[in-house]
Design brief:
Butyryl-Coa Dehydrogenase, subunit A, domain 1; alpha+beta; Butyryl-CoA Dehydrogenase, subunit A, domain 3; 3 domains; Butyryl-CoA Dehydrogenase, subunit A, domain 2; glutaryl-CoA dehydrogenase activity; four-stranded antiparallel beta sheet; flavin adenine dinucleotide binding
């Protein structure tokens, strides 16, 4: 059947599906079927109780979603577009699932794969890829989020090893991680370290009272005279450029993931508008409601076109960090607009956990902040456009 003869898909007004390869479509369908069975029916309860579904971690590994871009050590070797589509489907269920996969693969595993020793890779990457082990990425600190160059965590040489002191904050997966990739200031600049959970002096504290990303494990990492062997250092990581390169990988996943949350909100509002009657007819028949739905559909499809274009650039090795900033800034902004507009269509029902809309809107507030705030990405683009830095 040609695209012109099949029914119009409101979530794919531009027929972008036709621009995907058979393999890319298969990845998306496989992840979507898995989540329809294992996540969508239960995620509202996970959010309500503040619980991450750890029982799904091995299944995520079986599907090849952990370290999906890596070509060895158990990675699936998927292209950037396939990874993006997986992120979209994961976040269509809940941002917590995409965040877990993103931190595990694009941050912890990516850092070990790029900058770790052969021994570190051999020991950790296959276990992280299968879901046997969980990783986290310790960069952000309580007083230094947008400016990691001012970090206070230190690593001092002590005999044949290191002593790590400091605190990391807002660390996804921290409380369930078997290994943390931690960045610290040394006499020779910023370095990365591989810190197993059972290292003396390393403890975690989960953050409570969150109104966003409630189904995600968010933790504080505490290092108090934490003694590490000399080979805990990531030997190929030099300076802040190393962790920032990993953040760029995670930001790419957000470009797609945010649209998954947006799609769920749009489709929920569309179904509701067709079924909910006021003044003797479905509210979707009113001009004001149609304007909202069209506005959401345009934003969603424009975001998908941007994500696909950036994914193709990434697969060609041509994607620039500034372009990732543009994608993250634009698509998260669009996703939040869609979620908030969807809530207005649902009226009072929009605040109920019976519907996923406000849950996604709350989650997207965190997505908007982590991996670079709107302000930071604006200044990155501002410097790219003017050639003038506003940071220093």
């Amino acid at each position: 059947m040609t695209s012109g003869s099949r029914p119009l898909d409101p979530s794919d007004l531009l027929d972008l599906r036709d621009l995907l390869s058979d393999e890319e479509r298969a990845v998306q369908q496989t992840v979507r079927r898995f989540l329809d069975e294992a996540a969508h029916p239960f995620v509202a309860e996970w959010f309500e109780t503040g619980r991450f579904p750890t029982h799904l971690i091995p299944r995520l590994g079986e599907l090849g979603l952990l370290g999906m871009r890596l070509t060895d050590y158990g990675g699936a070797g998927a292209n950037a577009v396939s990874y993006g589509l997986a992120c979209l489907e994961l976040e269509a269920a809940d941002s917590a699932l995409r965040s877990f996969v993103s931190v595990q693969g694009s941050l912890a595993m990516e850092a070990l794969w790029r900058y770790g020793s052969t021994e570190q890779k051999d020991h950790w990457l296959p276990r992280l890829a299968s879901g046997e082990a969980v990783g986290c990425f310790g960069l952000t600190e309580p007083d230094h989020g947008s400016d990691p160059s001012a970090m206070r965590t230190t690593a001092r040489r002590n005999g044949q090893g290191w002593v790590l002191n400091g605190t990391k904050m807002w660390i996804t997966n921290g409380g369930i991680a078997d290994v943390a990739v931690v960045w610290a200031r040394t006499d020779d600049g910023i370095k990365g370290f591989c810190v197993p959970r059972d290292t003396p002096g390393f403890t975690t504290r989960d953050l409570r009272g969150k109104l966003s990303l409630r189904a995600s494990v968010t933790s504080e990492l505490i290092f108090d005279q934490c003694r590490l062997p000399h080979d805990a250092e990531l030997p190929k990581a030099r300076g802040l450029r190393a962790p920032l390169s990993c953040l760029n990988e995670a930001r790419y996943g957000i470009i797609w993931g945010a649209l998954g949350a947006a799609r769920t909100c749009f489709e929920t509002a569309l179904r509701y508008a067709r079924e909910r009657e006021q003044f003797g007819k479905p509210i979707g028949a009113f001009q004001l409601t149609q304007e909202k739905l069209v506005d959401m559909a345009v934003e969603l499809n424009r975001g998908l076109l941007l994500a696909l274009h950036l994914g193709r650039l990434k697969d060609q090795g041509r994607l620039r960090p500034e372009q990732v900033s543009m994608g993250k800034l634009s698509n998260v902004r669009a996703a939040l607009h869609i979620a908030r507009t969807a809530r207005t269509i649902l009226g009072a029902n929009g605040i109920s956990s019976e519907y996923p809309v406000l849950r996604h809107a709350n989650n997207l507030e965190s997505v908007r902040t982590y991996e670079g705030t709107d302000e930071i990405h604006t200044l990155i683009l501002g410097e790219a456009i003017t050639g003038l830095s506003a940071f220093r």
